[in-house]
Design brief:
Blueprint (H helix, E strand, L loop, with lengths): L13 H7 L7 E5 L5 E5 H8 L12 H10 L1
Antiparallel strand pairs: 1-2
């Protein structure tokens, strides 16, 4: 069993990390999933899950290129 520290930190047992397929350096998303529950999910899994999920034609051609150009300015 782990305990929440005064700094709001929790140690996740190595066995649990191995079972979840998480390794040092993984980017994770942490969210509350109900009273007393927290979920940790590898960020790459979210990208794989949602990449390409919008129907064709959702955005006009070159829309993302235009957005990227705005970010560079």
């Amino acid at each position: 069993m782990s305990r929440v520290s005064r700094k709001h930190q929790v140690t996740i047992p190595v066995r649990v990390l191995h079972e979840a397929g998480l390794v040092a350096g993984d980017d994770v998303i942490i969210r509350a999933s109900g009273p007393g529950r927290i979920e940790v999910e590898r960020a790459d899994d979210l990208i794989r899950r949602y990449a390409g999920s919008l129907p064709a034609g959702t955005y006009p051609p070159r829309h993302l290129d235009e957005l990227r150009d705005e970010w560079r300015q």
